[in-house]
Amino acid sequence: xxxxxxxxxxxxxxxxxGLAYLAVSFSFGIxxxxxxxPYWLATILSASNITSAGQFAGxxxxxxxxxxxxxxxxxxxxxxxxxxxxxxxxxxxxxKTPAWKRLIMAYFITDEIFAVASMSRKNLNFKYFMxxxxxxxxxxxxxxxxxxxxxxxxxxxxxxxxxxxxxxMFIALIIPPARKSKGIVVSIAISVLITCIFYYTxxxxxxxxxxxxVIIASIxxxxxxxxxxxxxxxxxxxxxxxxKNNEEVEACNTK
Length: 255
What we know:
mainly alpha
């Protein structure tokens, strides 16, 4: 029996993501309040963004009184992957899906929601996607609210422990694909190397802000990885196979 991709199925598929977001956003709520944002503003920030790393970076830079232009480009680079995810999912939608539904779906796209939605292949539709997205949105927003409200009630040791939750989540995200792709390993290594150079070089550390460092490390690592490990398309594979066949035919004719 063929599985029905409706709102109910999407709701249960998105349940694990919602629970995970509840825990991670709790630490963001604490982090935001500790850096000067009122809990209600942190909650609005989560409800209107759902970008995890982008939010942490944005709050950090606001606390450092970074320029608006710097914050803009830093968050743009960090969240640029969502452009590609949106384009990828749009290929799975029915051509008759109206633009307003596509825009709503684009707002909800995160790494985890994209991963689950992309597994539906040609069965992706608006109702199923919204079922996936609703609990992650609620979990991320409500977790931020809880973290912001009870920040002062938690001991410092627990606050520090929760502060590393986001980094643990990202480690969990990059390890599985890194084990399967040499390109991802190289990209991570280059990013770490560049970040260390900026951090441990006195002049660079003092005069180049954290946001600019993120932008430079991201662009350089992505450019080098794309150059060393280009993604082969189906046309490339067909052309390679055709060239191989031609070489075999020429070898036979020579004999």
